[in-house]
């Protein structure tokens, strides 16, 4: 005898995946649903909606790693349930983070004796690292001013106007005035001379960037150091330098070993680097290294007695994952100096292929440098009919995500497109991108200009309405320009380049 049973509504396995009631109804967006749903349905629904995100590998806007070896993926998945902060329970993970700190400090030429351990910490990214470094400078400066009986309520920090947004966050959250050196046409990084001129007795540090976010250019840290040594000598101050090497810290040591930007320069007291950029680890890891113990005020270090032993910590948050620390250690020992150099050289070669391809079109000005972070920043020679935002939009149709943004003051009239070359952006993809940009340019030539089309429209209206005078047309032209400006500002806000 065969017993048959009617399938219940909730038995998802007997329904066709896309006919079950779970995919037929729309999901609540604001309130948690009353009832549970089967795990298969939850997976399917979320997975499908996520298909509409861009493809990370084609996201040329970001410096952040989008590919790692499958062996490392395995280590990451195996440690995904380990809370990093339980250091006494996971002593090996803590040990691996310390090894990473030591290796990176040596890479940056920290003045360490043979058996001396480095001073530094793993963070969620360069932003947290910069908050910690900034706090250390602020506290050191305050302590010194207090000891001298001088006011200590108006600290400032000197940077270029090209700083990444995390410096503005640091300034606002921790109440330090940000004094920005303005950029100029054709010079998109901090001018060391102007920076040193802005330094005063309330300056807690000058922050230089190794690898400007906007065009990848390395700032001249050596010149900054030399000028500041002079100024310190004549004023009696001891203004230090921090290097924001978020992107360049894992590039310069391998392909520009002669470049002096790190602890070889006496005024450089701390350096941050993003492990998740050219450190070649997925998002969620950064590092900050101090030159000496004395550069990190003891009172900022918390000694927690948690679940066992005394653990010194200096971070902003408490719990976090362990996977990224383990993945960083994997990359350092798996690739070694040789491996990192090969990866960086390959990125630079692919950057040159792309740059030369763009130059060949004759339509672009290249605003990035060959020596720097491997990226190509470029703008249209003539953007009177079509602009960089249209190029960015049209490339999206081929699958490429290439951001366009305007430069900070005083170069805000310059708009650039930026392609970041990461490890997983191969020669074939670089060549393909050149071809697709060529197609976009060709297509744009055949399209009427959106800008002039609107002006023509305004003129036609003027002809049609007899009593409409010239002023109206001028007004409309002004409105069109304002609309474009608004669009650009809006784009700038949305295009969080990272
Ligand atoms: C990316 C970047 C940052 C921020 O780093 P996160 O690791 O994303 O927090 C800071 N400064 C520079 C120069 C950067 O390129």
UniProtKB/TrEMBL annotation:
InterPro entries: Glutamate_decarboxylase (IPR010107), PyrdxlP-dep_de-COase (IPR002129), PyrdxlP-dep_Trfase (IPR015424), PyrdxlP-dep_Trfase_major (IPR015421)
Catalytic reactions on record: L-glutamate + H(+) = 4-aminobutanoate + CO2
Entry keywords, A to Z: Calmodulin-binding, Decarboxylase, Lyase, Pyridoxal phosphate
GO BP terms in the entry: L-glutamate catabolic process
A single GO cellular-component term on record: cytosol
Pfam families reported in the protein's UniProt record: Pyridoxal_deC
EC number, as in UniProt: 4.1.1.15
Modified residues annotated as N6-(pyridoxal phosphate)lysine in this record: 277
Cofactors (names): pyridoxal 5'-phosphate
GO molecular function, a single term: calmodulin binding
UniProt enzyme class: lyase
Protein family: Belongs to the group II decarboxylase family.
Name of the featured protein: Glutamate decarboxylase
Organism expressing this protein natively: Populus trichocarpa
Source organism phylogeny: Eukaryota, Viridiplantae, Streptophyta, Embryophyta, Tracheophyta
């Amino acid at each position: 005898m065969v017993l048959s049973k009617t399938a219940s509504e909730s038995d998802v396995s007997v329904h066709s995946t896309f006919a079950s009631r779970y995919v037929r109804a729309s999901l609540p967006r604001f309130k948690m649903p009353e009832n549970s749903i089967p795990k298969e349905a939850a997976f399917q629904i979320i997975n499908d909606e996520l298909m509409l995100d861009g493809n990370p590998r084609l996201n040329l806007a970001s410096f952040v790693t989008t590919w790692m070896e499958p062996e490392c993926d395995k280590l990451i998945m195996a440690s995904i349930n380990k809370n990093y902060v339980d250091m006494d329970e996971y002593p090996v993970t803590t040990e691996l983070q310390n090894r990473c700190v030591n290796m990176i400090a040596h890479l940056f030429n920290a003045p360490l004796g043979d058996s001396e351990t480095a001073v530094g910490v793993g963070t969620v990214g360069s932003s947290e690292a910069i908050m910690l470094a900034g706090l250390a400078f602020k506290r050191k400066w305050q302590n010194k001013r207090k000891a001298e009986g001088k006011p200590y309520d108006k600290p400032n920090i000197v940077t270029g106007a090209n700083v990444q947004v995390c410096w503005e966050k640091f300034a606002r959250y921790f109440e330090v005035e940000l004094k920005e050196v303005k950029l100029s046409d054709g010079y998109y990084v901090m001018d060391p001379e102007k920076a040193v001129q802005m330094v005063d007795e309330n300056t807690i540090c000058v922050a230089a960037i190794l690898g400007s976010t906007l065009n990848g250019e390395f700032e001249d840290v050596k010149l900054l150091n030399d000028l500041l040594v002079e100024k310190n000598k004549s004023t009696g101050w001891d203004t230090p330098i921090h290097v924001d090497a978020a992107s360049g810290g894992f590039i310069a040591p391998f392909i520009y070993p002669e470049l002096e930007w790190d602890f070889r320069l006496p005024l450089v007291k701390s350096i941050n680097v993003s492990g998740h950029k050219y450190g070649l680890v997925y998002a969620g890891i950064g590092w900050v290294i101090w030159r000496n113990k004395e550069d990190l005020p003891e009172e900022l270090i918390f000694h927690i007695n948690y679940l066992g032993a005394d653990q010194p910590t200096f971070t902003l948050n408490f719990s976090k994952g362990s996977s990224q620390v383990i993945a960083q250690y994997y990359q350092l020992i798996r690739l070694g100096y040789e491996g990192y150099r090969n990866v960086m050289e390959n990125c630079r070669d692919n950057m040159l292929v792309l740059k030369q391809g763009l130059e060949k079109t004759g339509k672009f000005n290249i605003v990035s440098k060959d020596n720097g972070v491997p990226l190509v920043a470029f703008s249209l020679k003539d953007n009177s009919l079509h602009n960089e935002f249209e190029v960015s939009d049209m490339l999206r149709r081929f699958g490429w995500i290439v951001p366009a943004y305007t430069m900070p003051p005083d170069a805000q009239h310059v708009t650039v497109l930026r392609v970041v070359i990461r490890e997983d952006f191969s020669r074939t993809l670089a060549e393909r991108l050149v071809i697709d940009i060529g197609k976009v340019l060709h297509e744009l030539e055949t399209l009427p200009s959106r800008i002039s089309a609107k002006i023509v429209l305004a003129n036609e209206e003027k002809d049609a309405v007899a009593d409409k005078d010239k002023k109206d047309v001028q007004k409309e032209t002004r409105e069109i320009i304002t609309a474009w400006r608004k669009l650009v500002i809006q784009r700038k806000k949305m295009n969080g380049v990272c």
